[in-house]
Amino acid sequence: MSISREDVEYVAALARLELTEQETQEYTEQLNSILGYAAMLEKLDTSDVVPTAHAVPLHNVLREDQVKPSINHDKALRNAPDGEEGFFRVPKISLT
Amino acid sequence: MESVTIGKSVSELHELLLHKEISSTELTKAYIDRIKSVDPALQAYLTVLEEEALAQAADVDEKISQGQALKPLEGIPMALKDNMCTEGIRTSCASKMLENFYPPYNATVTERLRAAGTILLGKLNMDEFAMGSSTENSYFAKTRNPWNLECVPGGSSGGSAVAVAGDEAAFTLGSDTGGSIRQPAAFCGVVGMKPTYGAVSRLGLIAFASSLDQIGPFTKTVRDNALVMNAIAGHDPLDSTSVPIEAPDYTKFLVNDIKGLKIGIPREYFGAGIDPEVAKGIQAGIQTLIDLGAEVAECSLPHTEYAIPAYYLIATAEASSNLARYDGVRYGYRADADDVLGMFKKTRAEGFGQEVKRRIMLGTYALSSGYYDAYYLKAQKVRTLIKQDFDKAFEKFDVLLSPTAPTSAFKFGEKSADPLAMYLSDITTVPINLAGIPAISIPAGFVNGLPIGMQLMGKAFGEGSLYRVAYTFEQNTNYHTLKPNLSREVLTGGSR
């Protein structure tokens, strides 16, 4: 299973990453090398193996709902690159 | 006053504070002076909190003068890896993305260490978003190995290891997703513990791979390590993956006796890729443990070779999802663009470094439609097999033992050009994270003047057995007492 330049461009779009020409080339090579190595996993028959998502599985961790104060607007917005009157401001959202 | 701190363990410093031979203010000043003199060369710190630390120390001294009881870590200066949130104190993850991020809350470990009365000296360098094995991926600084300034300190918690090895803090915390505590501890000749997954709260630890990340202590001695674990371990209702069991008093496992303890030596951890000199050093350590009465036998963890691909698929898949939050909207770096989608793409292109982007790409690919079963699901199934290997071994053995890393510290640039070569050097550490079990690295000798580490692996929540073996080994060897030469000549001559 080899990865084409188009695959890399497609994945970059999914990951919301703008890549330079050089990065596109490098990542195509490097992902091929890394996934080529990962192909060794195919050698293992795992048809009867249950996947592990967490090593120490905990299920349905529940608690009573409690009303507590949350952080205020000023604090929440302190790290925002662009904020105003209690809102996060973003550039225009265009439908393309 | 500098001489007072050099080489002293947390428990020794506690005695000095207790008997009023030194004040916390004097101690904190000594560490600040030490940082000023060695850190321009070592570059372990990204942020030093001189004023804040001295104010905290003054509070502790006030308590002491009132005759209040002194907790084991009270008044002790320490530092945190820069991926643990500190309220109002920059937490950068060594990334341009978070260059100006000031968390609105504290990580649970930050809170617990504050409650324990420790003094926060500052925040420590790391590989960007904890992705790396050499700390070379930091956006800000190149941390140097105190034992040889031309060598990397390991990673990703390179700053945490160097701060302890270079006596720039009495102890530090790091995080370990695939070896990021143990490997730098080995490279720098200090003690580093990766606890069982779920033993220490991850609340406020900036996420890399959530099913693998775990916080743990770097210390000079095994006793110190247990003392720090006492302060940070235990259930946290705010982290739903924190395991709801009561943490033990870890110091009660510090006995100088391993008679009859069963130690397994997994042969796969001594195979191809392991420097023969490192293997020899660890063999000598094994002999020491046999002489002390341990029952040692070889064993097998047959799926070890599959751990690297399984780890790098799972860790990058989780990372690609976790790092989706960096979109330039609520916090972090933002690049200008005409529309919001362009802003996301440019922000992430400019805010993340090469290794982070590479891993996001790999993880996004592994999770993408059509490849999910072949890569991500397959890796999760292999994770089960790796975990079963350990379960089986622990039916026969109390503890497993291996080298912490295949080599001693390598030179800057030696592996940074080839990502796969860098990934392969994690073979002895990543299986432990996949299995969720605890492992500790302790100083076990030197190869070419650089420290090597012995890794002890235990059952889930078996940190006690690890501390028992580690303590016994430490009490019968002198590696932990040896110090790197950080004379002025070395610091000015060896750098740059």
TrEMBL record, chain A:
Pfam families: GatC. InterPro entries: Asp/Glu-ADT_sf_sub_c (IPR036113), GatC (IPR003837). It catalyses: L-glutamyl-tRNA(Gln) + L-glutamine + ATP + H2O = L-glutaminyl-tRNA(Gln) + L-glutamate + ADP + phosphate + H(+); L-aspartyl-tRNA(Asn) + L-glutamine + ATP + H2O = L-asparaginyl-tRNA(Asn) + L-glutamate + ADP + phosphate + 2 H(+). Heterotrimer of A, B and C subunits. The keyword ATP-binding applies. GO terms for biological process: glutaminyl-tRNAGln biosynthesis via transamidation; regulation of translational fidelity; translation. This is Aspartyl/glutamyl-tRNA(Asn/Gln) amidotransferase subunit C. Keywords: ATP-binding, Ligase, Nucleotide-binding, Protein biosynthesis, Transferase. Allows the formation of correctly charged Asn-tRNA(Asn) or Gln-tRNA(Gln) through the transamidation of misacylated Asp-tRNA(Asn) or Glu-tRNA(Gln) in organisms which lack either or both of asparaginyl-tRNA or glutaminyl-tRNA synthetases. The reaction takes place in the presence of glutamine and ATP through an activated phospho-Asp-tRNA(Asn) or phospho-Glu-tRNA(Gln). PANTHER family: GLUTAMYL-TRNA(GLN) AMIDOTRANSFERASE SUBUNIT C, MITOCHONDRIAL (PTHR15004). Belongs to the GatC family. It comes from the Bacteria. Its EC number is 6.3.5.-. The keyword Protein biosynthesis applies. NCBIfam families: gatC. GO terms for molecular function: asparaginyl-tRNA synthase (glutamine-hydrolyzing) activity; ATP binding; glutaminyl-tRNA synthase (glutamine-hydrolyzing) activity; transferase activity. It comes from Desulfosporosinus hippei DSM 8344.
From TrEMBL, chain B:
Residues 26-466 form the Amidase domain. GO terms for molecular function: ATP binding; glutaminyl-tRNA synthase (glutamine-hydrolyzing) activity; transferase activity. It catalyses: L-glutamyl-tRNA(Gln) + L-glutamine + ATP + H2O = L-glutaminyl-tRNA(Gln) + L-glutamate + ADP + phosphate + H(+). Pfam families: Amidase. GO terms for biological process: translation. InterPro entries: Amidase, Amidase_CS, Amidase_dom, AS_sf, GatA. HAMAP family: GatA. Belongs to the amidase family. GatA subfamily. Heterotrimer of A, B and C subunits. This is Glutamyl-tRNA(Gln) amidotransferase subunit A. It comes from Desulfosporosinus hippei DSM 8344.
